[in-house]
Amino acid sequence: MIGHGIGNIWKSFLKKGINIPDYKISSIGPANIIYEHGITKRISTGLSFSYSNIKGFYNNSGFVFKDNLMIVTILGRFNYHFKLNKKIDTYIGFGLGYVYSKYSNSINTSSNNVPGEFGYSAQLGIKYNFVNRLGLYSEIGYVNGSFIQAGLCYSF
Predict the structure, then answer these.
(1) Tens digits of per-residue pLDDT, 40-87?
(2) Is the predicted pLDDT of residue 5 greater than 80, yes or no?
(3) CATH match for 2-154 among 2.40.160, 1.10.3470, 3.30.70, 3.10.450
């Protein structure tokens, strides 16, 4: 599965942390690549890789402030599938793993590598195969830095 998170949580976090009027934020991600392997008809395991990069910028009367927050998440996932039919697959699951974060800004010359932290996800999802093996998926919950995720899925 290849997807993108809707509503980057880290973007909101950075905006609230930097209390400057006219501070502008742009972001990439969270972009996700998920591999899932069926153990049985109902149970699957897999890996999830996610990348987010959030940039902040402020420029007023010669004072320029820039900052950057990059987050990489790698999780092992477990899902239970309800499989309504051949085209529709609903599931619930969770993920556990590792989160790497790096923050830097233009005022402080050093960058702050946040030590690897425990990462997690909890998802309720649906896959719809519109042709054999190819379809769309969507998940809600806390999924790699967003509350909604959507994208393409391919079944091997």
Answers:
(1) 989 999 999 999 999 988 888 888 888 888 999 999 999 999 988 889
(2) yes
(3) 2.40.160
Q: Which pTM does this prediction carry? A: 0.84
Residues 6+ apart with CB under 8 A from 115: none
Burial bucket for residue 147 (CB in 10 Å: 0-12, 13-18, 19+): middle
Angle at 64 between CA 63 and CA 66, to 5 degrees: 150
Phi then psi dihedrals of residue 15, to 5 deg: -60, -40
What is the secondary structure of 84-103 as a DSSP string?
-SSSEEEEEEEEEEEEEEEE
The DSSP code for 109 is S
Nearest-angstrom CA–CA distance, 115 and 14: 18
Which of 59, 63, 67 lies closest to 105 in space, CA to CA?
67
